[in-house]
Design a protein that fits this description.
Helix content is 14%, strand content 12%. It contains one helix and two strands. A two-stranded parallel sheet has the order 1-2.
Length: 64
């Protein structure tokens, strides 16, 4: 995964209705639980708000 550098920084924008971005992991073909840590690091460097939910347990990849 390549995350290019932006001179002005990253920003997370709200949706039209005012809600914020929500990211959650899911089993295949959903968003891989392994990528949650990458998204978390990028989100700490961005301006704005994001909710990150980790629903899959790493022990056996059981998803609630």
């Amino acid at each position: 995964m390549l995350i290019p550098e932006h001179k002005s920084g990253y920003s997370i924008t709200k949706y039209i209705d005012g809600s914020i971005l929500t990211i959650s992991d899911a089993p295949w073909p959903g968003f891989s639980p392994d990528l949650i840590s990458v998204v978390l690091v990028v989100a700490t460097q961005a301006k704005g708000s994001v909710l990150i939910h980790q629903k899959c347990l790493r022990v056996d990849y059981f998803c609630r």
